[in-house]
Amino acid sequence: MTLPDIETAGLSHRQLNFFLVVDCSGSMAGDKMASLNYALRAALPAMREAAADNPETRVMVRVLRFSTGAAWHVEPTPVEAVEWGDLQADGETHMGAALSLLAGALTPEGMPGRQLPPVVVLVSDGQPTDTFEDGLARLMASPYGRKAIRIAIAIGADADLDVLTRFIGHPEFRPLQAHNAESLVNRIKWATTAPVRSVSTPVTGATPMERLAQEAPAAPPPADAMVW
Amino acid sequence: MAVSQLREGTPFRLRASGLAGTVGALIGAGGQGAAYHASIGGKPFVLKWYHPHVLEADTRLPGRIARAVERGSPDPRFLWPIDLVEVSGREGLGHLMALRPPRFRGLRDLIAAPPARIDPPLVVRARTCLSLAESFLHLHAKGLCYQDINFGAVFIEPSSGEICICDNDNVDVNGAPASVYGTKKFMAPEIVRGERMPDAGTDLYSMAVMFFYVLHAWHPLEGRAEYEVALMDAEEEMRLYGTQPRFMFDPADASNGPVAGFHDAIVRRWRSLSEGVRRLFVQAFTAGLRPGPAGRVIETQWRAALARMADSILACPACGYEHALDAEDADPDPRRFACVACGAEVPLPPRLLLGRDAVVLCQGAQLHAHHLDPARPFVYGEPLARVEAHPADPAVTGLRNLTADTWTSRLPDGTGAAVPPGRTIRLVDGLEVDFGRRRGTVAAGQSPTR
Questions:
Q1: How does strand B83-86 pair with strand B33-40?
Q2: Which stretches in chain B have pLDDT values below 50?
Q3: In-domain check, residue A3
Q4: How far apart are CA A43 and CA B206, in angstroms?
Q5: Candidates A6, A115, A199; nearest CB to B265
């Protein structure tokens, strides 16, 4: 006897907004960009799986690209529906502009409805060529920016670790370093799934950021081991 | 993390039995470790291999699993550790367990978005809770504590409500230092506040949360107060689940009550539950929000109330919405009954009165050992009787004898008939059936059976 039972019309679950902020400057051109596109494509199924393990959370994905200026590459899309369109690299490293644009979305208006703290993953291989300070200040002043879980992935030896560390703003959480294509795939996969999983994994006492820091992939090989 | 993974084909050895096996394909990785298919003498098992950082942080883990292996499973529904697993030449540790049959689905699929969502009928949901209560009763009765009762650990067979419980790595003697705080939203408020560690008493709180989820697909503390939080950060979580927890159906405090237009489906489900089950939820999430034996509802209380509710469920003929016979709006008469979903009048179905208990005899309803054998309470398994329509006249219903023994029956006028195995007795008002170990009387429904 199967009968229509609990219908949930009108009920909605909390959203977890996931922002991926990607450096598409000229230095990323070639193998790096191809690897990054591959890594993101590969991460999507794992991310969907992590989201499916948290049915009380609706995961929304947005992607922001920056080079000379910053623009949305993927508008808010449920993780099940995201289709990866390859990013292209050229131009400057306007990370400050990216953080400003991001700050505008990290508001109750930009993220309507009941929310979990958003996750922002910043991926970069170089040094900002615009006023990073302004962008960071705007991000931290936005209503949800300060409360966001901020993760950074440094690609290669030229990435500005100081800038990325300040973006993270957590004493125990360092940028994840990717020195080759394989480690980039692993870092991206971790960064796109661990924060989603952490919503429902057993609590061991540490704060969410500390937990992520403990769990983050181990230290990378030396910079000269970089192979692209 | 990649370095801690095992390669397919790696040989391993079981510590206690000495048997050898081979690692198979990776099933998945979680917070504590990764699970692999495994084979021992051609038989399939599951190997859970712990992350090195977990073994480092949780030094009691190997001892705990070893004791669990030695002690054995408290109930067959737990996928209990069979033995410790070691890989020669490698640091680290794992344990072996049985393979979960593929017919089981994750309990969290009850709240998944379609198409992954499973939507079993209310009677199956009640049986699921009942089965969980039984399993944890057996675990607690052995002096053990589960520590981390949550959705991820439980699997359900969606048509029967049969369950299996995984992730038994944290099970320990009640009172031993806990290895985990628990899973968000399932942790008792005193653990959320950091005042206590998990024990058998906090298990009872987590179990009540799970029951509420199974029946409502919603969390019991998520009423208006949760609805009004735009961004659920750590401070808000502490307030809602730790320092100011309030039940959304607290009869004495409406401050976290349901929001009209948002929680309507939850309200309907709540109102459709039996009075006994509602009363236990109120206890669990008012007095039971505080530690101590006074408020926390124990398994035997749940078991009795859930078994009774499972026997009293009927569907609205107009919209199909399921109710317990003593749902909130049921007239105590009880000859009138309005559907909580559509308002249509729900005719009272025939019932079988078994002493203090009553079983609704809707078509398809089944009787089990629980009903017919006083020596086997709460035993379901194979049905012993089923309500069926007459093959030639669907308006006539009867009770089919699925046992191997002949029943006897007697009408109010004193006439009677034997009901041999496989035969069906028509349900009429006042009919008395002797099932051998128990006797029942049929009470006609609102539209009396002919």
A1: unpaired
A2: 1-2, 448-450
A3: no
A4: 33
A5: A6
- Asked if residue A29 is part of any domain, the answer here is yes
Distance to chain A for B320, nearest Cα, Å: 6
The Cα B12–Cα B7 span in angstroms is 11
In this structure, which topology does domain B2-97 adopt according to CATH?
A: Phosphorylase Kinase; domain 1 (3.30.200)
Domain count, chain A: 1
* pLDDT at A7 (0 to 100): 43
Contacts of B108 in chain A (CB under 8 A): 53, 55
**CA separation for the pair B275, B280 (Å, rounded):** 9
Residue A202: inside a domain, yes or no?
yes
- Indicate whether A228 pLDDT > 60: no
Q: pLDDT tens digit string along A9-46?
A: 457 889 999 999 999 999 999 999 999 999 999 999 98
Q: Where are the domains of chain B?
A: 2-97, 105-306, 349-450
CATH class label, B105-306: mainly alpha
The pLDDT, as a whole number, for residue B346 is 87
Which carries the bigger pLDDT value, residue B24 or residue A52?
B24
Q: Kindly state the helix (H) or strand (E) to which residue A50 belongs, with its residue range.
A: helix A31-52
The residue range of the domain holding A112 is 20-218
Question: Residue with structure tokens 């900002």?
Answer: A128
Q: How far is B157 from B104, CA to CA, in rounded Å? A: 5
Helix (H, G, I), strand (E, B) or coil at B138: helix
Which residues of chain A have a CB within 8 Å of the CB of B206? Answer: none
Angle at Cα A190 formed by Cα A207 and Cα A13, nearest 5°? Answer: 65
Q: Which fold has domain B349-450?
A: Tumour Suppressor Smad4 (2.60.200)
C-alpha span between B149 and B126 (Å, rounded): 18
Q: Quick check: B53 and A215 CB within 8 A?
A: yes
Task: Out of B1, B181, B321, name the one closest to residue A204 (CB).
Answer: B181
Q: Which tokens hold the place of A35?
A: 């690897």
Task: Supply the CATH number for residue A136's domain.
Answer: 3.40.50.410
Q: Collect all residues of chain B within an 8 Å Cβ-Cβ radius of residue A2.
A: 120-121
B230 interaction partners in chain A (CB closer than 8 Å): 108, 114-115
Per the prediction, chain A carries an average pLDDT of 85
Using a cut of 0.80, tell me whether the model's pTM lies above it. yes
| Residue at A222: amino acid letter | P
Position A226 in a domain:
no
* Cα separation, B175 vs B173, whole angstroms: 6
For residue A72, give how far its alpha carbon lies from the nearest alpha carbon of chain B (Å). 23
Report whether pLDDT(A4) > 60.
Answer: no
The reply to whether residue B262 touches residue A1, judged by beta carbons under 8 angstroms, is no
